[in-house]
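[[Encoded backbone]]
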Amino acid sequence: MSVFICIYPIGKFAVHWCVYIIFAGKKVQMRVALSQRSLKGHVRGSKGEYSMTEMVYGSVPVSRGEPILPKWWRTIDKWTLAAILGLFSIGLLLGLASSPPLAEKNGLAPFHYVQRQAFFGGLSIVAMIVTSMMGPQLVRRLAVVGFILSFVALILLPFFGTDFGKGAVRWYALGFASVQPSEFLKPGFIVVAAWLMAAAQEINGPPGRLWSFALTIIVVFFLAMQPDFGQASLVLFGWGVVYFVAGAPMILLFILAGLTVGAGAVAYNLSDHFARRIDGFLSPDIDPRTQIGYATNAIQEGGFFGVGVGEGQVKWSLPDAHTDFIIAVAAEEYGFVMVALILFIYGSIVLTSLSRLMRERDPFIRLAGTGLVCMFGVQAVINMGVAVRLLPAKGMTLPFVSYGGSSLIAGGIAMGMLLAFTRSRPQKDVADILNGRK
């Protein structure tokens, strides 16, 4: 039997004596309040308050813990969960407007792509909820396994992958669907990088920062070989965020930014695919027959309230109206109001998650969660920035809004990891110990 005593004041003339007793392998708490007016003693367990007699003679019931679902609902970030479901609903709404022209062109049912989006979206939501119920250690194990499998699939793309006529080998064609390994690689990579950097902060820990940097260079190299400079930039950005939060010196981050610009210059000279996109972005004139031209015109036509549901014309001209340029469909048919709503939802997810992570004391959880939510937000910014010609064209979806099975399911896993990391949990401070939080 072991006894631990702590004392803290509760007022000018009163104190609490907290006695922790390890008795028969179980911890119970006895709090004694001493004041001018009262003298109380009791033992508090997870099921209520008990006397010393009950504790000694074994009548205190054994706690079985809170059921999984009630505990999950009590600790989950409900606003972020609702916001993600809202984004998916907006995606279905926009899919009803943007996908019928493509379905008609391919000889399919009018709402073929909407039905597929609903199916993959359902799988995504299930994956998100199941992942969010996991503990941080289980999420880390899942991320490591997912990263290894995705990385192997990424390496084998040049031998077994296809480009679907888009000039970049990024997918595996399975007949009934296609898989893009880079989408599943991103969340796993962020968690692995955060794990390595958190381990580096421990006494006698491994050189996790160096290892994570080497891993980042290898991943970025294979992504650039597809070529997929958009995903490579996103992975590099995610690693930079994790490194910054882990305490990287600013001078080193500026050096890495300079090296990134240098690598972009090399890619411009060596890759015709990359050079065409940069030249098109820097050109002062917009070719109205390009996707950027169609998207820019649609946004201008939409105005503040849009041209009306189903009245937009850009979906008949843009081949990627349901994926990379779906924000142009939203701007044309629903106007600035819909675009502002989408921006607000993305911004609220990022800010809410970061505010919860700021209270987190576990370095791994804080680093992994910050990397995931920042990558999520920047991907949305890149997609919308391309549509309004603020950024060069990149094949990147709008999370939970654009059509795409790999994007939806991988996004669900990533946000499930984020929700698992941002769940309310004890931070091992005095208030948690005194209140018996587990």
